[in-house]
Write a structure and sequence with these properties.
Length: about 300
């Protein structure tokens, strides 16, 4: 059975790549929470972006994180799927506790469209058209939940970059996970900012909170890499567990939060389904490029080939 030595960041290219990814994610999160244009994007463009992001998250979870976790966990499918399930359930509980992904909060109280037979009006599906958690500090719950989620995202990104780099992917190391995270962060930051505006928070307070939130993913990555020293000889298993749980979390966000938008918004069914398919296609394309890069590295020389044998 092939073994995969799990060195978190095996070379300077991986380090530089991770730093670049973290900087771009922090910038995207900060922009999403501070850009008036993004916060007032409008219903249809917001739904298209959410559908696209849902497709990317679903595709990355199934085509990238899950297979890589399986390899890191010595091709033990039962153990891998148990950790995927753990990640799914943990994210489900997180969303239930903090209502962290109420994306409709950024669209206003009424989108003005018929949602078809699954209209939200008679009963709550968990998609908040209004800020259902009211009060001066209503945004604190969203911040807490999304910050915990972002810490997990940082760990998943660091694990993905490390695992891909060891497998010879090169400059594409961790790119699929990065894409899924960077597409999602502006929405999350926008939720926090919108709830803070509704709570009457000052512009200075919003700026500070937005900057803190933008720094959470990098903090999660650094904390994860620092903690690997505590698992001497078990880094491979730790990386596999992190990637499996991230796969489960991505699947939960996509299936429970983003993908229902395609079903509920019947007025734009074709447009949103197309955006979803495009997101899935992007995830598949990145995974295909990684396989090509991996195969090229495996045939580039004895040292590269030894990684896989």
């Amino acid at each position: 059975m092939p073994t995969f030595v799990a060195v978190a960041l095996p070379d300077t290219t991986a380090v530089a790549g991770l730093i670049l990814y973290l900087a771009l994610i922090a910038a995207a999160a900060f922009a999403g929470g501070s850009s008036v244009a993004f916060l007032s994007l409008g219903h249809r463009p917001m739904q298209v972006l959410l559908s696209l992001t849902g497709g990317v998250l679903l595709g990355v979870g199934l085509l990238h994180l899950l297979p890589h976790a399986w390899l890191q966990l010595d091709r033990d499918i039962e153990t891998t799927m148990l950790w995927v399930l753990a990640g799914f359930f943990a994210m489900f509980l997180l969303e239930r506790a903090f209502h962290g992904h109420a994306h409709h909060a950024a669209e206003g109280p009424d989108c003005g469209h018929d949602h078809g037979p699954h209209d939200h009006a008679p009963h709550d599906h968990g998609h908040v058209h209004k800020a259902t958690v009211t009060g001066r500090w209503a945004w604190c719950g969203a911040f807490a939940g999304l910050a915990l989620h972002s810490l997990a995202d940082g760990a998943a990104l660091a694990a993905s970059v490390g695992a891909d780099a060891v497998h010879g992917v090169g400059m594409l190391a961790g790119f699929a996970t990065f894409l899924a995270i960077v597409l999602h962060k502006p929405f999350d930051a926008g939720i926090i900012a919108t709830l803070m505006v509704g709570a009457g928070a000052s512009s200075r307070t919003r700026l500070v909170v937005n900057a803190l939130y933008a720094a959470v993913v990098p903090l999660g990555a650094v904390a994860f890499l620092a903690s690997l020293s505590l698992f001497d000889g078990r880094e491979q298993a730790v990386l596999g567990i992190a990637m499996a749980m991230a796969a489960g979390a991505f699947l939960c966000i996509a299936a429970a939060d983003l993908l229902p938008e395609v079903q509920f918004h019947s007025h734009d069914r074709v447009l949103l389904t197309t955006a979803l398919a495009l997101g899935l296609g992007c995830a598949w394309g990145i995974s295909a490029l990684e396989r090509v890069s991996h195969a090229h590295a495996a045939h580039a020389g004895p040292e590269a080939g030894q990684r896989d044998h």
